[in-house]
Automatic annotation (TrEMBL):
Residues 1-116 form the GH18 domain. InterPro entries: GH (IPR017853), GH18_Domain-Containing (IPR051887), Glyco_hydro18_cat (IPR001223). It comes from Sylvia atricapilla (blackcap). PANTHER family: DI-N-ACETYLCHITOBIASE (PTHR46290:SF1). The keyword Hydrolase applies. The lineage of its organism: Eukaryota, Metazoa, Chordata, Craniata, Vertebrata. Keywords: Glycosidase, Hydrolase. One of its GO terms (molecular function) is chitinase activity. Pfam families: Glyco_hydro_18. GO terms for cellular component: extracellular space. Gene3D superfamilies: Glycosidases. This is DIAC acetylchitobiase. GO terms for biological process: chitin catabolic process; oligosaccharide catabolic process.
Amino acid sequence: QDHVCSLPKVPFRGAPCSDAAGRQVPYATIMKQVNSSLSGVLWDEVQKAPFYEYKDSVGQFHQVWFDDPHSISLKAAYVKSRGLRGIGMWNGNSLDYSGEAAAEQQTQAMWQALTP
């Protein structure tokens, strides 16, 4: 209800909130799952990032944070406004390159968002 999802405190390179406590999900999975999630897309104004919440088949609550073209474009604009030398993505291989029309549009929008 308050959109707080705690992670187990698993030390990993000195950061308690890391891939040791969570896992990476391909963008294709996120785009398919978000539509059937409990919450739909939610937006965190502090992080400038979307997320959603769902329960798995055994009733376990999950929260998925991700970037979309809007959040990436905000980050790219910040980099440009500060005169920084570039921006990177966590893993471009997680985008959906299946060739489906919706996937092509989503993937193209993500890459275009990197150029403010």
